[in-house]
Amino acid sequence: MRTEVVLIATKGQLPRMRCSGSLQARLTSTDTVHLVGVAASPLGGDEISVHIEVGENAVLRVRSVAATVALPGRDTVHSSTAWACSVEGELDLDPAPTIVAANAAHHSHVTVHGSAGASLRLRERVQIGRAGESSGFWSGRLDADVGDRPLLRHRVELGAGSVTDDELGCPLALISELRYPTMDSIETSPIDATLLHLAGDATLLTWQGRRLPAD
């Protein structure tokens, strides 16, 4: 299944939304949109595309009402989600976790183009396996630019067959959070997360472990 979501935020107007496929968008506040799954997705072979535009001085917060569960399909185990974000105002993108079920493989690619005056908070949470499972695979790529300069190129793999997979165990859960511009203080949850200060006035928080902590 091919799923496409378009969200456009303009100052002084309610966000515009266009959706097809397995996701629908619901306006839950004047500047907040929740994504709602209306079909079992992503299954192997599914492609999800989310395009976000935030105009100058506009604010958009994107959430989801439930976790995304990636499942293997009949003909292939691979599914994918692509987020393409163009930001001149403020974007807070924090969907519920992605859970990759046994024998499924899910690929995420987030691309962000921000203006110098943009404000970004992008958080991604991933869990390999439902209860008692550990054989799924996830790969994530984050490419962020501000103005005409690259801000971050980040790629991570988790689960079976990943670069960190070994017989003694490997991380099965991930939290990644990019913020631009850098804040004077940032809560690092969980407490053992790593906070990196990036060139270009940004921070990247990362954490890996066996199970996602409760919020």
How would you describe what is shown here?
This protein is an all-beta fold and 215 residues long. It has one domain (2-171). It has no helices and 17 strands. It has strands at residues 2-9, 16-20, 23-29, 32-37, 47-54, 59-64, 68-70, 78-87, 90-93, 98-100, 105-114, 119-128, 137-146, 149-159, 173-180, 194-198, 202-209. Strands 3, 4, 6, 7, 9, 10, 12, 15, 16 and 17 form a ten-stranded mixed sheet that branches. β1 (2-9) and β2 (16-20) form a beta hairpin. The radius of gyration is 17 Å and the shape is globular. The two termini are 31 Å apart.
Total DSSP helices: 0
Strand tally: 17
Secondary structure class reads: mainly beta
Main sheet attributes: strand count, strand direction, barrel closure: 10 strands, mixed
Query: What oligomeric arrangement do these chains adopt?
Result: single chain
In short:
It is built from no helices and 17 strands. By secondary structure, it is mainly beta. The strands form 2 sheets. Strands 3, 4, 6, 7, 9, 10, 12, 15, 16 and 17 form a 10-stranded mixed beta sheet that branches. Strands 2-1-5-8-11-13-14 form a 7-stranded mixed beta sheet, with no helix packed on it.
